[in-house]
């Protein structure tokens, strides 16, 4: 077993770390406070190969492996979680499904601009009445005689919805078939029949824009169907498996930032005549934070490694996401507690880490859904 990284992986990690620490972290408070989408920073990530890390170079990406993606995501998330949310949707939820299921023309048209960071992509699965139970979607796609589809319906909680150019959309094409009646479509938001709804005011990752979207008689040309009719649910689940490795990495980045700030603070802050890091109650928290952080990192690297081997990695991705997101919530909670009043103050980033960590237990499959996936895989029962 080799715990080392390749030179290429370390180079990308280094690029991501420099951008995160020099450009993103210093502006994170501003974007969080205003809930403003960081347009220029996103372009910068694209110019540095961070918007399509696993996308082959022929489609505008960096042509690297899943381990490199994990390392880069951790660095960007440690700078600011919201930036890494936008980055993860471009990289995995948008590009991955098209690379795996798209035609050559679809890859050229839709992947390049997103992988280069010139445009922003989105993934539309969730609806107002269906989140975890994704097959209960109502958004409807009706096939026409010429092979095109007419789409009507709403999608909610769309990350990058207010700013995206292209969307991978899932809609019910044959409702009586349930999961097997869902088809995936590629959407250009400049076309008629596409509407953006209200932007969601959020607890955390506030610089990533989220909104409801609506389709009213939106026509999808036959060449913009992604994969075969009825394959949409499997495409969505496969894409989410990869997405969950990205969210696990994001959780690790947030947790690492909180942990590193805490390590500094416990050496400087004095109480009862000594640095608080000398107290056993603080030491126990530090030890538990470090163990959870390392466990999350190793499980996430394992999931990425299995993905890189071309094997099914649904279980490993769910284990990584569950472990890393719960670790991030716990670590940021303890970091706020150890910082006391300063942890609660907006003068330090600890309260932002705490708010940002929460979403990792919710999106791309809640912790409850990850447990369901893991238990089904382990027992073989449904
Ligand atoms: N890969 C490939 N195929 C898969 C799969 C996977 N990981 N998981 C399931 N499938 C296939 C099954 O094999 C089955 O195929 P057959 O019909 O051929 O047998 C089919 O899909 C249906 O599977 P299930 O019967 O297991 O489906 P289910 O209705 O019981 O649902 C679920 C399973 C795990 C609960 C799933 O619905 C799920 O993951 N829900 C959570 C949805 C989610 O993660 N939403 C996040 C929204 S996106 C987001 O958050 C983006 C963002 O903002 C950034």
Automatic annotation (TrEMBL):
Q: What is this protein called?
A: Acyl-CoA dehydrogenase
PROSITE patterns according to UniProt: ACYL_COA_DH_1 (PS00072), ACYL_COA_DH_2 (PS00073)
Which superkingdom is the protein from? Bacteria
Establish whether keyword Cell membrane is in the entry: no
List the InterPro entries. Acyl-CoA_DH_CS (IPR006089), Acyl-CoA_Oxase/DH_mid-dom (IPR006091), Acyl-CoA_Oxase/DH_mid-dom_sf (IPR046373), AcylCo_DH-like_C (IPR036250), AcylCo_DH/oxidase_C (IPR009075), AcylCoA_DH/ox_N (IPR013786), AcylCoA_DH/ox_N_sf (IPR037069), AcylCoA_DH/oxidase_NM_dom_sf (IPR009100)
Supply the alphabetized keyword list: FAD, Flavoprotein, Oxidoreductase
Domain Acyl-CoA dehydrogenase/oxidase C-terminal residues, every copy = 230-377
**Ranges for the Acyl-CoA dehydrogenase/oxidase N-terminal domain?**
6-117
**Domain called Acyl-CoA oxidase/dehydrogenase middle: residue spans:** 122-217
Any keyword Lipoprotein? no
- Which cofactors are named for this entry? FAD
The entry sums up its family as follows: Belongs to the acyl-CoA dehydrogenase family.
């Amino acid at each position: 077993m080799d715990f080392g990284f390749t030179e290429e992986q370390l180079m990308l990690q280094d690029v991501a770390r420099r951008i995160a620490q020099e450009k993103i972290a210093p502006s994170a408070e501003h974007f969080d406070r205003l809930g403003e989408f960081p347009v220029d920073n996103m372009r910068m990530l694209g110019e540095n190969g961070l918007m399509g890390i696993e996308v082959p170079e022929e489609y505008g990406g960096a042509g690297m492996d899943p381990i490199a993606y994990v390392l880069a995501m951790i660095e960007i998330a440690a700078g600011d979680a919201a930036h890494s949310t936008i980055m993860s949707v471009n990289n995995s939820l948008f590009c991955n499904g098209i690379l795996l299921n798209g035609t050559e023309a679809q890859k050229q048209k839709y992947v390049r601009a997103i992988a280069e960071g010139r445009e922003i992509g989105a993934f539309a699965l969730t609806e107002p009445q269906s989140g975890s139970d994704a097959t209960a979607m109502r958004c409807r796609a009706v096939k026409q005689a010429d092979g095109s589809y007419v789409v009507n319906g709403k999608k909610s909680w769309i990350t990058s919805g207010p700013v995206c150019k292209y969307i991978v959309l899932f809609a019910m094409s044959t409702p009586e078939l349930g999961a097997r009646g869902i088809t995936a479509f590629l959407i250009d938001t400049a076309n008629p029949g596409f509407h953006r709804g209200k932007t969601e005011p959020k607890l955390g990752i506030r610089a990533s824009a989220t909104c409801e979207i609506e389709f009213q008689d939106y026509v999808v040309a036959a060449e913009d169907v992604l994969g075969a009719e009825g394959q949409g649910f499997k495409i969505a689940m496969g894409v989410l498996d990869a997405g969950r490795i990205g969210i696990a990495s994001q959780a690790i980045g947030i947790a690492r930032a909180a942990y590193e700030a805490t390590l500094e603070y416990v050496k400087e802050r004095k109480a009862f005549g000594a640095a608080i890091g000398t107290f056993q109650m603080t030491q126990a928290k530090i030890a538990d934070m470090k163990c959870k952080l390392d466990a999350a990192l190793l499980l996430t690297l394992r999931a990425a490694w299995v993905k890189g081997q071309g094997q099914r990695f649904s279980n490993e991705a769910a284990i990584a996401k569950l472990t890393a997101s719960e670790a991030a919530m716990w670590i940021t909670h303890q970091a706020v507690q150890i910082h006391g009043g300063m942890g609660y103050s907006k003068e330090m980033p600890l309260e932002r880490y705490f708010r940002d960590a929460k979403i990792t237990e919710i999106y791309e499959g809640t912790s409850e859904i990850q447990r369901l996936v893991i238990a089904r895989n382990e027992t073989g029962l449904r």
